Amino acid sequence: MTQTRWLPSLRRRFNSLNEQEILALAISSEEDDGRIYRSYAAGLRADYPASARVFDAMADEEDEHRQRLIDLHKRRFGDTIPLIRREHVSGYYERTPDWLTKPLSLEKTRLKAHKMESDAERFYLAAAAQSTDAATRKLLGDLAHAEGGHQTLAEQLNETHLPQAVRVEEDEKANKQFLLTYVQPGLAGLMDGSISTLAPIFAAAFATGKTWETFLIGLSASVGAGISMGFTEAAHDDGVLTGRGSPIKRGFASGIMTLIGGLGHTLPYLIPNFKVATTVAIVIVFIELWAITWIQKKYMDTPWSRAMFQVLLGGSLVFAAGILIGHG
After folding, report:
1. Does an H or E element contain 60, and which?
2. Cα distances (angstroms) measured from residue 103 to each of 28, 99, 112, 171
3. Closest CA to 137 of 19, 253, 229, 286
């Protein structure tokens, strides 16, 4: 149920917490972060075992910090730790639960881990600076120092478990997976959407001389091609043997880029003036063909000359076919 706007927030303000509650909050946060690191490790273990070992070691360090905080709580306040978590405190840093839905990419996992460390350190430093109680200020400062130490630990663990050669190998593997899962099917979709729809759209344009009818034909061709390419990409290869990744991801990449490729030179026909609409559509066609060439060069290492020849030749033939059929 959505909270009514005029009702006061049920979260506690951080400056209302006493020292025991702050310590309990730190304990639960360390516990959560340890579990997150283990989830990251599990998601990376099959493809990137060296990086998985780094996150396993970071999770072990979080567990050690948690145990030290628990020992401190026992000495100061006894065995009963208040149940307080980050979602109970207003303004406390949060963790996006993306690790619960799917494994993250290697680079995104590294970035998430770095943000976890810096968020915790920055929060504790800011809280310590605002505190007037000496004991609380020292406690927050110690926690900030511990979180800052995580970054040094991560660097040390990378040197131990992830030497430069291994890191380069894993980065190359991650890049290859990105190409196979997103770039390759997306490029195929963009080429199909941009080139295959040229003939029906411009044939309709020159045959009817009407912008709205041309737009409807282009829209139907683009949507139909997007659905067809998406389902074809997803259905013909489950990615298990080829290593091309999730068929659903590849299907969406191919289908969406096919739709975009077709809509690029379809949308200008929303302009009522036929000559203006056709001129704009032709300019967009050349932009699309240049974009395809650039993607081939950047991501697929295709030489400029060969990429331009392939794309321009295919596009020109289909474009010419559409004009000839339309005038026929």
Report:
1. helix 49-77
2. 23, 6, 12, 16
3. 19
**Residues forming beta bridges with residue 12, ordered by sequence position:** 89
Cα separation, 235 vs 188, in Å, equals 15
Q: Can you say how many angstroms the Cα of residue 9 is from the centroid of all Cα atoms in its chain?
A: 31
Please report the sign of the dihedral spanned by the C-alpha atoms of residue 14, residue 20, residue 21, residue 27: positive
**Residue where the block lists tokens 């839905």:** 101
Separation of alpha carbons 166 and 175, rounded Å:
14
SS3 239: coil
CA distances from 57 to 158, 170, 176, 241 (A): 10, 18, 27, 32
- pLDDT one digit per residue (tens) for the chain, 328 residues: 444 444 345 778 777 888 788 888 888 888 888 888 888 888 888 777 877 888 888 888 888 888 888 887 888 888 999 888 878 887 676 776 665 556 666 677 777 777 787 777 877 777 677 767 677 677 778 777 766 765 555 555 455 555 556 555 656 666 677 777 777 787 777 877 777 787 788 888 888 888 999 899 889 888 888 888 888 877 777 666 566 667 888 888 888 888 888 888 889 999 999 999 989 988 888 888 888 888 777 777 677 677 676 666 666 666 666 667 766 5
Residue 31 and residue 14: Cα distance in Å, rounded? 19
- Cα(89)–Cα(66) distance, integer angstroms: 19
Distance CA 16, CA 136 (A): 12
Instruction: Tokens for 100, please give them.
Output: 């619960």
Token representation of residue 63 = 């567990």
Q: Both tokens of residue 149?
A: 């130490």
Backbone angles phi, psi at 94, to 5 degrees: -115, 160
Architecture of domain 12-162 in CATH? Up-down Bundle (1.20)
pTM: 0.51
Q: What residues does CATH 1.20.1260.10 cover in the chain? A: 12-162
